[in-house]
Amino acid sequence: MKIDRSFVSDFLNDRNNVAIAKTIVALARSLDLDVIAEGVETKLQRDLLADMGCNAYQGSFFCRPVPLDAFEQFARRI
To answer: Which residues pair with 3 in a beta bridge?
Structure first.
């Protein structure tokens, strides 16, 4: 299950978005599904999501978008 970037991007300004993200995590857990948050751009967003129980993330906090060949080179180094 995915937490949409529209909820993640406004965590600091809209507590409803935080509540929605917590609900998505709880629902995913109750259905034994993994959950991933997209649009994670700051450490604070990542930390809030981790505190909710989300442990998979996508976003520029981890890596900016790169061309396929650059990604393949990166993936070979891991």
So the answer is: 37
Above 90 in pLDDT, residue 40? yes
β partners of residue 57: 37
Q: What is the pLDDT of residue 63?
A: 79
Please report the pLDDT score of residue 54 as a whole number. Answer: 96
Which residue out of 4, 10, 38, 41 is catalytically annotated? 38
41 as an active site residue: the answer is no
Instruction: Name the residue with tokens 């709880």.
Output: 26
Which DSSP string do the residues of 1-69 spell out, in sequence order?
Answer: -EE-HHHHTTTTT-HHHHHHHHHHHHHHHHTT---EE----SHHHHHHHHHHT---B-STTT-----HH
Phi then psi for residue 74, to 5 deg, are -60, -45
Entry pTM: 0.81
